[in-house]
Design a protein that fits this description.
Layout: H1 2-33, H2 38-58, H3 80-105, H4 107-115, H5 126-137, H6 144-155, H7 164-171, H8 176-185, E1 209-211, E2 222-224, H9 230-250, H10 266-284, E3 287-293, H11 305-313, H12 318-327, E4 333-337, E5 340-344, H13 357-372, E6 380-382, E7 385-387, E8 389-392, E9 395-400, H14 403-419, E10 430-435, E11 445-446, E12 449-450, E13 452-453, E14 459-462, E15 465-468, H15 479-487, H16 493-513, H17 519-536, H18 546-549, H19 562-579, H20 585-595, H21 598-610, H22 640-647, H23 656-660, H24 670-679, E16 683-686, E17 688-689, H25 695-708, H26 713-717, E18 719-728, E19 736-739, E20 750-751, E21 759-768, E22 771-772, E23 776-778, H27 784-802, E24 809-813, H28 817-820, H29 822-829, E25 834-838
Parallel strand pairs: 10-13, 17-20, 18-24, 24-25
Antiparallel strand pairs: 1-2, 3-9, 3-10, 4-5, 6-7, 8-9, 11-12, 14-15, 16-19, 18-21, 21-22, 21-23
Helix pairs in contact: 1-2, 3-4, 6-11, 8-9, 9-13, 10-20, 13-14, 15-16, 15-17, 19-20, 19-21
């Protein structure tokens, strides 16, 4: 009966809410329809939002009140200590209600408060900020000649004309379906001067400016965020989506521009493409010149005359052109500086925080992208595709062959940016020049300003990913402190789990997508995550591990191991790159995958078994052939019954006594089994001792050979092949196998290598095109530390004695545990001019020194 009452109450409340919404629409719809001018519309909007705000606030739960005790209300049945304890309990309950309610309404704001991730406030003077704002946003009008030059640049883009349906799509008013979709996806955006929020239409975020980097007393280091009216943001979001869709379909935006585009993984595509270029240059010892360019306040410094020339050049409806002109004319910006405000009437800049600013800026920036990929740039040939430039909004990157070619492109970009009223920030620009794998020094300029040259160990952070001469693993360090902060808050357990799933892990995924995080680090983080989950769920220390990763539908927590997540992201990134629409990225990544498929292939193979599916037909170790006969070669002397008995030998290392006692073999003497096996030619032979190779191992070895078989002699001249020999006791013994003579190397007849680990003597040595290295004895057992010390003492001394200073040497070793340990890989990564050539898995015999 109670459930019926609750259901009836919910139905009544929903009906009442829908009735209230209908009454509100009936009240204000005639007022909007009666508007004839923009001023009439602004007046109606002002009165409408003023009426809507208090009505929406009545539907919200009241904020928790802070408990306040009455000093005159004395409780004689409690001493002072108990009263103090009760006050503390009430205060904790108040703090818990406060943070929990904040999380329910503004999840991202609550997360920032819990993690202490608050941007520093501006602590400079108002006069300095006002001077900067006037200089940035209030500029003199562009000369008519410069406006004409900008118009010529846009006209040379040769915009494709939209069809009649596309023109109607751009020109019609926003539909109710589009507005509902925008409102449904809108979360945590700031309110404007009308104080109407997205939690009334929905949400609130009071932050105004965010510190990027640098001194908080310098206002230029802050990124202004526009707090626009909420109704306008819904309108601009719909127009932005339409304009972006048409620009992408008609090719108004170059494929190299991936900034703020839906369904485009621009960061992954650009960073992986540049990483592949650097890796290809290093391994093939080719020429490449790359420049990373940064604009000086790009969004804030676009003169309003430039978007005007852009809209005049674009083939868009006149109504839309008039709307764009009205948006960037007659504005006033109020900048909040602590308790004071600065008022500016801007003549430059597109508003950050406005959805319409993204497509407008991308289209205004298009001449720079086309200049970067013009015919003056020969590009870098990567697996049959030319890589010339990449762009993510104002972050542009240029790739070519030589420094001279790069300087010509920089001059063209500087001239184009001057025409558009933009400037490059030379202090944040950088370039990398590699000459056959070596980074020589070269002096390049953007305009008249010199830009920084990356050294062999330097890196440039591009779209959050460091790229340079050496591609290192990046170790995130803020996850564990953030887990401690969340565990110590007064949030409810389900809210802590939600932050862990929806905020911490997605922010960590950016590192996993790069594919350069050490698995050992992820294993440690997985352990810390389980401790955190066990703490908030009040689980004992001996709680079963599968509970943390089981699906929530069966009672688990539904989390995922970071080590598995890294593999999933590797596979997902490969799928995204292979299926992207960029005509340069997709073919290059497909060819790269065929040559460097070890990481992706190993991740896919592991998880295809883990998830109980296989990419191909599954092979079984059944000794019977498809026709049901025994696969062993037999003659007519073997009877059908004896064939059945012989066919039961699944383990070829069983002796006759083992076979006689197997199920299904009744009353068969051991000597009879021996005779029948000998008659079939299956004799007892010494088992071959080798590493067991799977199909994946063979495919990896074949790919390795195909990749390096065509390398020139100069490449192998500087390759040093090294290995160590250890004399140790073996537990193998004399194991024999029943087989035919020609079946010695078959997989089922090979005995896998077993090492006992009791090493007596170990030596290290190497060879190269000029001879042999010195044979060095390794004291005690060969450990990772001993191995690295051996390389420091012998390999480095050998390189200094036989090669020129600064020459890049290729170093070959097998994939034993001490060679692939974290300590060894870290030392190799930080050793200059030493490149470790990785052999495929189970490919130690491909090292020529193994055959000496």
């Amino acid at each position: 009966m109670r459930s019926k009452n609750v259901q009836g109450c919910s139905q009544d409340s929903s009906e009442e809410q829908s009735q209230r919404g209908g009454d509100f629409a009936c009240l204000w719809a005639p007022a909007f329809h009666s508007c004839e001018t923009v001023l009439d519309l602004e007046g109606v909007l002002e009165h409408c939002t003023a009426d809507w705000l208090p009505k929406a606030q009545l539907l919200e739960d009241p904020s928790p009140e802070k408990p306040q005790g009455n000093p005159n209300d004395r409780k004689r049945n409690q001493n002072r200590q108990m009263q103090k304890a009760r006050r503390q309990i009430k205060l904790k309950a108040y703090e818990a209600r406060k943070i929990q309610r904040l999380f329910n309404i503004y999840p991202r704001k609550a997360v920032r408060e819990v993690l202490g991730d608050r941007s520093p406030s501006y602590d400079g003077t108002v006069e300095a900020a006002e001077e900067y704002l006037e200089r940035t946003y209030h500029r003199s009008s562009l000369p008519s000649q410069q406006c004409q030059s900008a118009r010529v640049l846009y006209d040379t883009c040769d915009w494709s004309h939209p069809s009649r349906d596309q023109m109607d799509f751009l020109n019609r008013a926003p539909s109710q379906k589009e507005l509902e979709a925008k409102l449904r996806r809108a979360t945590n955006t700031s309110s404007g001067v009308d104080r109407l929020e997205y939690r009334h239409l929905r949400a609130l975020d009071p932050d105004c400016i965010l510190l990027e980097t640098g001194d908080p007393s310098d206002y230029s280091n802050f990124r202004p965020i526009s707090l626009l009216p909420t109704i306008y943001k819904l309108f601009s979001g719909v127009i932005s989506q339409r304009l972006t869709e048409i620009a992408s379909d008609l090719g108004w935006l170059s494929p190299e521009q991936k900034g703020f585009l839906p369904w485009v993984h621009g960061i992954q595509e650009h960073t992986q493409l540049l990483q592949t270029v650097v890796e290809e240059t290093r391994t093939k010892r080719r020429h490449v010149s790359i420049a990373w360019l940064d604009m000086c306040n790009a969004f804030d410094s676009v003169p309003h005359a430039v978007p005007g020339e852009l809209s005049a050049s674009l083939p868009i409806p006149d109504d839309l052109r008039r709307i764009l002109a009205n948006i960037y004319s007659g504005n006033r910006m109020d900048f909040a500086l602590q308790k004071e405000s600065v008022y500016i009437s801007p003549t430059a800049g597109v508003r950050q925080g406005d959805a319409l600013s993204a497509p407008i800026f991308n289209l205004a920036f298009e001449p720079l992208v086309r200049a970067g990929k013009s015919n003056i740039n020969p590009g870098f040939l990567l697996f049959g595709s030319l890589v010339k430039t990449t762009a993510y909004a104002d972050d542009i990157d240029v790739v070519t062959n030589s420094p001279d070619e790069l300087q010509n492109i920089l001059d063209l970009l500087s001239l184009t940016s001057d025409t558009l009223g933009l400037q490059f920030n030379a202090g944040k620009c950088a370039y990398l020049v590699s000459d056959k794998g070596k980074p020589p020094e070269a002096l390049l300029r953007i305009g008249t300003q010199p830009i920084r040259c990356l050294g062999p160990d330097d890196q440039e952070t591009y779209l959050g990913t460091p790229i340079g001469g050496k591609l290192r693993f990046r170790l995130p360090t803020d996850l564990i402190p953030n887990l401690d902060k969340i565990a110590a808050t007064h949030l409810a357990p389900w809210q802590k789990l939600e932050i862990f799933r929806s905020h911490l892990l997605p922010s960590f995924s950016h590192h996993l997508v790069s594919g350069r995080v050490l698995k050992d680090c992820l294993t440690q983080l997985d352990t810390e995550c389980r401790k955190f989950l066990g703490l908030i769920c009040n689980l004992p220390n001996h709680a079963t591990v599968p509970f943390f990763y089981a699906d929530r539908r069966v009672g688990g927590l539904g989390t995922c191991r970071l080590t598995d997540d890294a593999d999933f992201w590797t596979i997902a990134r490969a799928a995204q790159l292979l299926t992207c629409r960029d005509p340069t990225v997709s073919p290059a990544m497909a060819e790269s995958l065929t040559r460097y498929n070890f990481v992706v292939d190993s991740a896919f193979r592991y998880h295809s078994i883990y998830l109980n599916f296989s990419p191909g037909p599954r092979k079984t170790n059944n000794t019977r052939s498809k026709n049901g006969n025994n696969p062993f070669k037999q003659d007519e002397l073997v009877s059908g019954k004896d064939k059945t008995e012989i066919g039961t030998i699944e383990n070829k290392f069983d002796n006759s006594a083992d076979v006689a006692f197997k199920p299904g073999i009744d009353n068969v003497h051991i000597l009879t089994i021996n005779r029948r096996l000998i008659e079939a030619g299956i004799k007892s032979e010494i088992g071959a001792v080798k590493d067991i190779l799977t199909d994946e191992h063979r495919a990896g070895r074949l790919a390795f050979v195909r990749w390096y078989v065509n390398q020139p002699i100069d490449f192998w001249r500087i390759v040093v092949f090294t290995d160590e020999k250890s004399w140790s006791s073996s537990s193998r013994g004399g194991v024999r196998v029943r087989r035919l003579k020609k079946e010695r190397s078959e997989k089922r007849n090979i005995l896998n290598i077993k090492r006992s680990g009791r090493t007596f003597v170990s030596v290290w040595g190497g060879m190269w095109s000029g001879g042999l290295t010195r044979l060095s004895r390794v004291e005690r057992n060969l450990t990772t530390v001993q191995y690295v010390n051996t390389l420091k003492t012998n390999l480095i001394a050998f390189i200094r004695a036989n090669f020129q200073r600064g020459e890049r040497i290729t170093f070959v070793q097998d994939n034993s545990r001490i060679h692939t340990a974290v300590h060894t890989r870290t030392w190799l990564g930080f050793t200059p001019n030493l490149f470790a050539l990785e052999l495929p898995t189970k490919g130690c015999d491909m090292n020529p020194i193994e055959n000496l």
